[in-house]
Design goal:
The complex is a heterodimer of chains A (233) and B (178). Chain A is built from eight helices and two strands. By secondary structure, chain A is mostly helical. Chain B has a single domain, classed as 2-Layer Sandwich (STM4215-like). In chain B, strand 1 and strand 2 form a beta hairpin. The chains are: A mainly alpha (233), B alpha+beta (178).
């Protein structure tokens, strides 16, 4: 009778199994495996939690979702969703941005100046009581002129009326400023969520993602392990 | 889509039987009190302000991919047609689909005692879904093996929010083949 050891075959199979598991793990942790599902989870979560007047805020949140590999080459991925809403800006912020803007073409602050001009044009179109002084000017022209008044330091504005029956630039700015400040505040507040709501949304999506990974990971790993094993066989 | 709608309708019927503010016999020594809640499904918005109604809401959300042909497992199972003229028909084979599904239940409360109310509703929901004796009624309608997680507190800011997750197996006949 001959006794033979098959330990080397057992060890070989164990090593191969270990390689299979590692390969399956890497595949199961690819961001592409999770991104669409994470987006769907976030979408259903936010739609369930949002009040009707907040529904238009859902898509901007979903647009910020990122799924990517962990830095450093370790197997794993991360999911991220941010608050997409810009901070509330005051007239002073816009004025500071305008002050920082150099005369030579577009720069980092050009967007703020354009945004302000647009805000002013909207104010002219929706709020301002137009009179004969506005003449045939377009809303954009008037908005641009008011934007210039608001964002220019007082010292650079004329304090002399440009003609009979007219007021100086400084006086125009002084009279317009409270209306513009009020409009900007109202306009920006209406496009915002409270910080509590934002935090709740972010935490809820995080909880939903955690539940998703706990629920789905084993199945994904199992599927990839079966596929890897079949490939090697 | 029809399957999703029917399942949600069955879940609504099931949950509404319990979350009515009355105590219910759920197999414990004493009847267990269930809070009165506003039940919502998918993206339907809850009544605002929440504390104007019952003060607590449960929103059931279908998670992951909706059930479809890709997630089905199909088997031929014996089936006895209903009796005609007093005699049961001969046993036949019916193709039946099994689909694993998962849901998130968002439990919200605000107003007085929001935290305690949300916790009570989430605990009751988790316990109910994990109670095999009570979910038998669902199993008889094709929603099998309901498993729930322990409630997780998500936020206690403007309102108290808790998450209960659950999975189940749907079993339904494929009727298109005649």
């Amino acid at each position: 009778m001959t006794l033979e050891s098959n330990i080397s075959a057992v060890l070989y199979r164990m090593q191969r199994r270990r390689r299979d598991v590692e390969a399956a793990l890497r595949r199961a942790l690819q961001p592409s495996e999770w991104e669409s599902q994470a987006r769907l989870e976030a979408k259903t979560t936010l739609w369930a939690l949002a009040k009707q007047e907040e529904w238009r805020m859902v898509d901007p949140f979903l647009d910020t979702i990122i799924a990517a590999l962990l830095p450093g080459g370790d197997p794993g991925f991360f999911l991220r969703m941010n608050n997409p809403l810009p901070p509330v800006l005051s007239v002073d912020d816009f004025a500071m941005a305008a002050g920082l803007q150099s005369a030579g073409g577009p720069n980092l602050f050009s967007d703020f100046a354009n945004q302000f001009d647009q805000l002013m044009a909207d104010w002219v179109a929706n709020v301002k009581d137009k009179d004969k002084r506005d003449g045939s000017k377009t809303d954009e022209d008037i908005g641009h002129w008011i934007g210039y008044l608001m964002l220019t330091p007082d010292s650079n504005l004329s304090d002399q009326p440009s003609g009979p029956g007219r007021i100086s630039e400084r006086e125009a700015k002084r009279r317009l400023l409270p209306h513009i400040v009020k409009y900007i505040e109202q306009r920006q507040q209406s496009q915002r969520l409270s910080s509590e709501t934002i935090n709740t949304w972010l935490q809820a999506v995080l909880a939903a993602w955690e539940a998703m990974v706990r629920r789905e990971f084993a199945g994904k790993l199992q599927g990839h392990l079966a596929a890897v094993t079949n490939e090697l066989n | 889509m029809a399957l999703e709608k029917t399942t949600l309708a069955l879940m609504q019927e099931f949950l509404a039987n319990y979350f009515d503010g009355q105590p219910h016999d759920v197999g414990a020594n004493e009847d267990v009190p269930f809070p009165c809640v506003e039940l919502k499904f998918q993206q339907s918005a809850v009544t605002q302000p929440l504390d104007a109604g019952p003060g607590v809401s449960i929103t059931m959300v279908w998670t992951g991919e909706p059930p479809g042909a890709s997630s089905n497992r199909k088997f031929w199972t014996p089936w006895t047609p209903p009796a005609t003229a007093g005699t049961p028909g001969p046993p036949e084979l019916q193709e039946t689909a099994f689909t694993r599904v998962s849901w998130n239940f968002w439990v919200r409360a605000n107003g007085t005692n929001a935290k305690a109310n949300a916790r009570a509703a989430a605990d009751a929901l988790s316990g109910l879904l994990g109670n095999v004796g009570e979910t038998r009624a669902l199993a008889q309608k094709g929603i099998h093996r309901v498993r729930s997680s322990a409630p997780r507190a998500v936020s206690d800011a403007s309102y108290s929010l808790r998450l209960v997750t659950a999975t189940a197996m749907l079993r339904y006949p494929i009727l298109s083949q005649v």
